[in-house]
Design goal:
about 200 residues, 6 strands, three-stranded mixed sheet, Nucleotide Exchange Factor Grpe, Chain A, domain 2, alpha+beta, single chain, three-stranded antiparallel sheet, elongated
Length: about 200
């Protein structure tokens, strides 16, 4: 083989090696492209993580906001209840004044006490107290003639009678009162019972 041929063969082999190397090694542009692709993937992963974190934070914020709204409503309701019933113990104590005035009016009327001014003064005092109680939503409980209800009535006696059905309030010994929808004081009552002869 001639020297020229030998050199040509080597040159062909070198060219083939170079072509293989060129296929295996990325060119400068390919390396930059791969690096950019890796960076984009990394940024997309970071972005996805931040979006998830943002959604979780928003979800927590919405939950806290809803809980706070519920708390505000509950606090307003409790404050309203407190204002409505704050005077309950004072009003309950004042009921005895109404009881005494009512008894004094009844006694004056029954005994024919002279001096109509006393009776009239008691009536005016009672009327004013009742007005004050109504202002605070305190109202008497209807008892006489009503079926006995242990939620609102406290039975002191049972009385045999034929004029009223059994377990009916025949007399009221002391008025009961409600404050709003709450029981302030139960009515003390006499409840009807069937006559012994009927049993």
């Amino acid at each position: 083989m001639s020297e020229k041929h030998q050199r040509n063969g080597e040159t062909e082999i070198d060219d083939a090696d170079r072509n293989e190397d060129a296929l295996e090694k990325p060119t400068g542009n390919d390396a930059v492209s791969a690096s950019l692709e890796e960076q984009v993937c990394a940024l997309e992963a970071k972005l996805a993580g931040k979006e998830k974190e943002c959604r979780e934070t928003l979800d927590k914020l919405l939950r806290v906001s809803a809980e706070f709204e519920n708390y505000k409503k509950r606090a307003a309701r409790e404050a309203d209840e407190f204002r409505k019933y704050a005077n309950q113990s004072l009003l309950k104590e004042m009921l005895s004044a109404i009881d005494h005035i009512e008894l004094a009016i009844q006694a004056a009327a029954a005994n024919g006490v002279p001096g109509a001014n006393i009776g009239e003064g008691l009536h005016l005092t009672l009327k004013e107290l009742v007005r004050i109680f109504e202002k605070f939503d305190v109202r008497p409980i209807a008892a006489a003639g009503q079926p006995f209800n242990p939620e609102y009535h406290e039975a002191m006696l049972r009385e045999e009678t034929e004029t009223a059905p059994e377990n009916t309030v025949v007399r009221e010994l002391q008025k009961g009162y409600m404050i709003g929808k709450r029981l302030l004081r139960p009515a003390l009552v006499v409840v009807s019972a069937a006559p012994a002869s009927a049993q």
